[in-house]
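Archive maintenance. Older records in this collection stored only the sequence; we are now back-filling the structure field for every entry so that each record is complete. The fields below show one back-filled record exactly as it appears after the update. Entries are processed alphabetically, and Chromosome partition protein Smc is next in the queue.

ARCHIVE ENTRY
Title: Chromosome partition protein Smc
Organism field: Desulfonema limicola
Length field: 202
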Amino acid sequence: MRLKKLEITGFKSFCEKSGINFPPGISAIVGPNGCGKSNIVDALRWAMGEQSVKQLRGKSMEDIIFAGTNGKPPLNMAEVSVTMANDNGTSPAELRDFTEIMLTRRLYRSGESAYFINKQPCRLKDIHNIFLGSGMGAKSYAVIQQGNIGAITDAGPEERRFFIEEAAGITRYKNRKKETLAKLDSTNQNLLRLMDIIKEVE
Ligand code: ATP
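Back-filled structure field:
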């Protein structure tokens, strides 16, 4: 999958709808201090499902909604859409037929939030599933923020292993294994309970 386009409305300093196209290759965002470079990266991570307010440099999730400036009142909703070219077969089977995948995340000041894949409502889990093993995603190395290089070189063995596993495309299968083991465990618990009941009845 390749990042193609980012559309931002009401997110941090982006009051009006703004769009950024990413051509193939490496894209770098440059500009004067405080112009909103990191806010673009935050928007990208947020649309990819980032849950950590700290990673988004805020105190609460509401901080990502445009808070108003001298001439403009605060907004009640933030919406970010990220469009990816679906061209290398790393997307989940149910999305293989789409040439583009558009993810949208919306948050209202009331706290209500929603996720969409190609404009269809979905769960956060579905968003995470798209990125598992793709090398992209809120926690991937595809988006390099200020300080990220240092974080990778200083990472401990466990963290470094995560980066390698993600690049090798096995995170998706590791997660599925974890889910399956949890289901097996709960089935075993049910079986034990059932055996107890059978013994009581006999
Ligand atoms: P630097 O190069 O110094 O790191 P930058 O270009 O990365 O700067 P950002 O951190 O992306 O800049 O943007 C900072 C600006 O975003 C500040 O002016 C801040 O007031 C504004 N900002 C952050 N959150 C909001 C919000 N919720 N509403 C309105 N403006 C916001």
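Update note: Strands lie at 2-9, 18-21, 77-85, 100-108, 113-117, 120-122. The radius of gyration is 21 Å.
Entry marked complete.
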